[in-house]
Write a structure and sequence with these properties.
alpha/beta, single chain, 5 strands, binds 5-O-phosphono-beta-D-ribofuranose, 49% helix, 5-stranded parallel sheet, globular, 171 residues
C-alpha cells in the first residue's frame, strides 16, 4: 500500500497494533502531496526482515523513514543504525507506562546515531516533519508546507475571533 506520487517516505511500525496511530503520518503526507509506503515489521520479532527492508530503501528512492514503536521501542533506533537516511521516531502510547517507556527508548540514542523523536502518538507531526525534511531540497514540497502553515495560522486567528464573540455573549 502506498500514498499517491513518487514514494519518498517509508512509514514503518513495530506491530499492526500501532496502525491506528501511524495512519496520521500517512494522512499528513497525503495532505502535503508526498508519496509513502507502509509496513509493520518488528525489531525484535523479525530483525532479519527489518534489516533487509531498510537496506533496500535508498535504492528505491526513499529519503526519510518514520518509525513508530511502543514499549521497548527499539525499531526506530535499529532502523537508524542501518541507514544514513533521516529517521523520525514516533513513541506509541503503551498500556503499562502510557508511552513514557516508548519515548525514552526512542529519544535516548547514542551520539552518532540520532533519531528525531516526536511526541507520544504524534504521528501527524512525524508526517509533517518528513515533508519538511524533503522540502529542504524540493521547492514544491516546501511551498505546500508553507501553505499548510498559513492555513493553520488562519484557523487559529478565526478561533481567536470566535472566542472573543463567545466571551462577549457569556460574560
Ligand atoms: C512494539 O510492541 C510494537 O511497536 C507495539 O507498540 C507493541 C505491542 O505489540 P503487539 O503485541 O500489539 O504486536 O514492538
Amino acid at each position: 500500500m502506498a500514498g499517491e506520487g513518487e514514494v519518498r517516505v517509508s512509514i514503518l511500525m513495530g506491530s499492526d497494533s500501532d496502525l491506528p496511530t501511524m495512519l496520521d503520518a500517512a494522512r499528513a503526507l497525503n495532505q502535503l502531496g508526498v508519496g509513502w509506503e507502509i509496513h509493520a515489521l518488528s525489531a525484535h520479532r523479525t530483525p532479519r526482515q527489518v534489516s533487509a527492508y531498510v537496506e533496500g530503501l535508498e535504492a528505491r528512492g526513499i529519503r526519510v523513514v518514520i518509525a513508530g514503536a511502543g514499549g521497548a521501542a527499539h525499531l526506530p533506533g535499529v532502523v537508524a543504525a542501518l541507514t544514513p537516511l533521516p529517521v523520525i521516531g514516533v513513541p506509541i502510547k503503551s498500556a503499562a507506562l502510557d508511552g513514557l517507556d516508548s519515548l525514552l527508548s526512542i529519544v535516548q540514542m547514542p551520539p552518532g546515531v540520532p533519531v528525531a523523536t516526536v511526541g507520544i502518538n504524534a504521528a501527524r507531526n512525524a508526517g509533517i516533519l518528513a515533508a519538511e525534511i524533503l522540502g529542504a531540497g524540493d521547492e514544491e514540497v516546501r511551498e505546500r508546507v508553507r501553505e499548510y502553515r498559513a492555513e493553520l495560522a488562519r484557523s487559529v486567528i478565526e478561533r481567536d475571533e470566535r472566542i472573543r464573540e463567545r466571551v462577549e455573549k457569556e460574560v
